[in-house]
Structures are given as structure tokens and as C-alpha cells.
Design a protein that fits this description.
The chain has 279 residues and is of the alpha/beta class. It contains twelve helices and nine strands. The model has no long low-confidence stretch (mean pLDDT 95).
Length: 279
């Protein structure tokens, strides 16, 4: 039986790197290295990071400089919706480039893709690697009673090379992309699951996305304390919702506050889980 390769992929640096590589991103990669012990960690980038934390993790990575995604950069579809126009105006379309780059990496090599705002907690079990494609739900039964309609999250995925689910989803992405945040990604993932349900295994929200993309979930991660990590393989941090200092609608914490002292001494969900990877 062909298994999913035990290699991990990350995509980063699609914008100019004007600030040094952040501790949170280092902890993502270091926790992956320590927890999952992958054969290789493939780091796909356009602009190479720099700084103290990058220098520490770089020797453990296989670097791949990627080309810009012309389909996104040249797309006129952003003009068709208010949401798309905001995404283009705020230069957030790099996130859409990442959506396509990650899928192509999995199609070529197979393995595990993860967003960089992730913290790994315990190893992926062997049974995951025996599947064709694995993805986590970002809704549970209290948010969507019908499991076939639950939104799927492309922040962490496991795939065999050229899996049927991945191939169908990627093909559809080019057709349905409309410049909005997730029509082509998470929403389309749910639709493809409904078409070929036997080609994908969907994990419960708890496995990868226990603390959700809402004020309660984000507050629990960075201001609250929830030390029940049972059944969690990783923790998704939803950085786009709070990273900038002006974003206070989810938490008062911002990227500039996540430093070594915070990780070592804060009694919060993320800090307690992350500090073992500092040394």
C-alpha cells in the first residue's frame, strides 16, 4: 500500500521580508521537527526570511524558492466583489498564492502541509499516513449538524501524491476562484468532499482546530488557559485575525507581544504548549 510520505511542507515569504523571522514561526517549525520527526521539512518561499530565529531553524529545512503564482497576481476577479477588492487593496492576495502553492507541492511530493501559524502537540498517528487525503473540519456538531456540510480547513492537510481528492479540488480552484477569501479553498474542499466522499478522511475539529476562528477561540489561545490537549495533534493560531496591532476585535494580543518572555512565562494556552520548544 502506498502511504502518505512523512515529509512536511510550509509556504512562507510571499511578501518582502521587512522584519526578522518571528519566534512564533520558529516554534511552528521546531515543534514540527521535534514532535513529528519528519524525514524532511520542505520550506517553500519567494523571499527568504532572515534573523536570529531563522538562523536557528534554517539548517533543518530543505529550501525551495518558488515563482509567483501568475493566476493570482494577474487576476481581475478581485474587482468583482467588495471582499475581493478589500483583499487586493490590503495586499492580502499573497494568502491566495499560498493556497495554490501548497496544493501543487502536495500534488508533486505528497506529505503533510501546514500553515506557519501552527503549533504541533503530538505526532500524527500511523493510520493518518495510510489514508489518501486527510483534512480537519473547522466546525463541530454544535456549529453544523450535518457532517457533510461542515467547513473544511486547508491550514493542515495530509495527501498522497496525485490523490483523487486533491486533483479534483485543485482543478476546481481555478474555475471557482472569485477573489473572496475562501470560495476556492475551504468552501470548495467541502463541495469536493460531497462529490467523492470516499477519497478523503475528515477529522474532527478538535484534532487540528480545536480553538476556533472566533473571539472565544482566539482569546482562549492567547489570554485564557486551556490545558486539555487530549485528542489534539496541532493548534491552529489564526494569525491573520490578530497579528496586526490594530486588530483588537479578537484579542488584545498582537504579533509584537509574542516574544520569548511571553512564551516562557505567560499562563495562556499557547504559551504553556509552546515553551517546551524554546530550548
Amino acid at each position: 500500500m502506498i502511504e502518505i510520505p512523512r515529509i512536511f511542507h510550509f509556504v512562507f515569504g510571499l511578501r518582502p521580508q521587512n522584519e526578522s523571522f518571528h519566534l512564533l514561526h520558529y516554534l511552528c517549525l521546531e515543534s514540527c521537527r521535534q514532535v513529528n520527526r519528519p524525514e524532511t521539512i520542505h520550506f517553500h518561499y519567494l523571499n527568504e526570511p532572515w534573523g536570529y530565529w531563522w538562523d536557528r531553524i534554517r539548517p533543518h529545512l530543505v529550501l525551495h524558492q518558488v515563482d509567483p503564482e501568475p493566476f493570482i497576481r494577474d487576476s481581475a476577479r478581485y474587482a468583482n466583489t467588495p471582499e475581493g477588492r478589500i483583499i487586493r487593496q490590503r495586499n492580502l492576495d499573497y494568502a491566495h498564492e499560498s493556497d495554490f502553492i501548497r496544493m501543487k507541492a502536495l500534488q508533486t511530493w505528497g506529505g503533510v502541509y501546514s500553515d506557519m501559524d501552527t503549533l504541533f502537540l503530538q505526532p500524527m498517528p500511523d493510520e493518518f499516513y495510510r489514508e489518501q487525503f486527510v483534512i480537519g473540519a473547522e466546525q463541530d456538531e454544535t456549529e453544523q449538524r450535518d457532517p457533510m456540510k461542515r467547513s473544511l480547513c486547508n491550514a493542515l492537510m495530509l495527501a498522497r501524491p496525485e490523490s483523487a481528492y486533491l486533483a479534483r479540488w485543485l482543478e476546481n480552484m481555478y474555475q471557482v476562484f472569485d477573489g473572496t477569501w475562501s470560495r476556492h479553498s475551504c468552501q470548495e474542499a467541502t463541495r469536493v468532499r460531497q462529490q467523492i466522499p470516499d477519497a478523503v478522511r475528515v477529522l474532527s475539529k478538535r484534532c487540528f482546530h480545536r480553538h476556533g476562528a472566533d473571539p472565544v477561540g482566539v482569546h482562549t489561545l492567547f489570554e485564557g488557559l486551556d490545558e486539555d490537549f487530549s485528542g489534539m495533534y496541532s493548534m491552529h493560531l489564526w494569525a491573520h485575525l490578530w497579528w496586526d496591532e490594530w486588530r483588537t476585535d479578537f484579542t488584545i494580543v498582537h504579533g509584537g507581544m509574542i516574544d520569548e518572555d511571553y512564551v516562557r512565562y505567560a499562563e495562556t494556552t499557547y504559551a504553556v504548549a509552546a515553551r517546551r520548544f524554546l530550548d
